Every structure is written in structure tokens, then in C-alpha cells.
Amino acid sequence: MKKTLLLLIVVTLFYSCGEYQKALKNEDVAAKFEMATKMYDAGKYTKAIRLFEQLATSYRGKPQAEKLFYMFSQSYYKTKQYYLAGYQFEAFVSGYPRSEKVQEAAFLGAYSYSKLSPVYSLDQSDTVKALEKLQTFIDNYPNSEYIPQANEAVQKLNGKLEKKAYENAKGYNTISDYKSALIAFDNFIADFPGTPFKEDALFYKYDSAYKLAINSIPAKMEERLHVAQTAYANLMKFKSDTKYKKEADEMNARVETDLQKFTK
After folding, report:
1. Which of 20, 36, 91, 240 is the most buried (most CB within 10 A)?
2. Would you state the pLDDT for residue 264?
3. CA distance 127 to 129
């Protein structure tokens, strides 16, 4: 019984593969479309893609084209070919604006670009592009059922930009480029006012101002000590019991001592 069942499965698979290979070589586009749909429905998206690629040109403008290009787009998405999926979904939205699938296609097109976003430490050009695509979707379909998912993706992408901006600013502090660190932390705090890194950013901004001041020539030291003093005050105002309090207080004591030299 088991041998019979196994033989039946092998014969079915062989027949199926033979039919698929025949469809690939077949000049009959209707037969090719039928097989592509069969492969798509069976979840064999890679095989379906090969057929859709052959059919795309000849089916443009035909009644079944909408279904074909929707399945084509979905097949790229299901196989994680997100750049091609994004392109195909955008083409679908442009070509079939009245389709019942248009909102889904518009969302998946934008969402596909978010899948191309790399880890925060790498170049974030694709992240910025994905944010633009998602915002366009949100603006065009504010009442869509996909808005929660779009907002969640936007939040995640913004988090990458936020983390990268913070690490870049901290990097200047690490290499002792304190002037650049001060500028970078100011920009970071302005661009991300609600950031969870604000306490850290305020401390490292203070640390940068402090180290720049105490290592300055006498002509610039007083002004820079006042900048450091202000940075300390901003940190304490934001969180008086900051985890950096002991270190910050010790640094501030030195700032006040050094400032006394300029009041005599």
C-alpha cells in the first residue's frame, strides 16, 4: 500500500513537472497563463514568476492582465524579491487604479521598500526611500485597513535613522572631535525631541562641551566653560536623578572651579 502511494506521488510529480516544462516552451499564452495560475495557487511562486515574465508583454491591455500582474507582484513579494515586488506593485497601482486590490497593492509596494532597509549602522538611503513611499501611501489612503501596519513600519524605520544619528554624534565624542560632537548632538536633539536616547545625548553633549572647555586655550576657555555649564543645567533639568549624575556633578565642580579663575 505504501509503495503504491509513493509511486502515485512520484508519477504525479513527474507529470506536474512535465506539464510545467511544456508550458514554459508552449507558444499558447492561454495555456501558459493557466499553468502560471496553477503554480501561484499551489504556492510555487518561483515557477509562477518564470511564466509571468513570459506573459507580461503579451497580456498588457487584456481583460486578464489585472489578475496576472497582481499575482506577478505577489509572487515577487512571497519570494522576498522586494525591489522587484515594490516596482511591480507600483506599476499595478498605476495601471489599475480602480482595482479592488489597489489599496493592498499600494501598501505592499511601499512596504516592500521597507524590507530593503538595512541595519542602522549602514547607509540609510533605502530607509529614507521607504519612509517616503510609506508616507505617500498614508497620505493617499488615510482610512485604509493597512494604516496601522504602515505606521508601525514608519516607526521602525524612523528608529533606525534615530539610532544612526545618535551613534554618529557619539562617535565624534569617542574620537575627541568635540566641536563636531556638539553640533551633531544639537541636531540630534532637535530632530528627535522624543527620543529614548535623550538622556544619553544630553550627557554626551555635556561631556563634549566639558572636554572642549578644559582643553581650550585661555582665550577661549571662559566662554566654553559657560557652554559646558549650560549643558550640565540642561541635563539636570531633563532628569535630575540621571544615571550620569555622579560623573556629571564631578565635572561641574571642576567647571565652577575653573570659572572662578576668570572672576578675579
Report:
1. 36
2. 63
3. 5
